[in-house]
Amino acid sequence: MPITLVPFTREHLEPAVELFSQSYLVEQADSPCLPDRVLDDPSVIQAALQTKLDTPSIAVIEQGRLLAFMVTGAQFTWKGQRAAIVPEYGHAAIATGKQALYQKMYQSLAQEWVNQGCHLHLLGHFAHDALLKEMLYQMGFGALVAERLRDCSAVASGQDPFIKIDQEVSKLLNLHIEHIHYYPHSPTFLSRSIDRQSALADLEAHALSGDVFFVAYEQGEPCAYLIAGESTLGGEGFLLQKTKTAQIKSAFTRPGARGQGIGKALLQCAIHWSQQKGYERIFVEHETANLAGSHFWSKYFVPYLYYSMRYVDSTL
Question: What Rg value do the Cα atoms of the chain yield, rounded?
Answer without folding.
Answer: 21
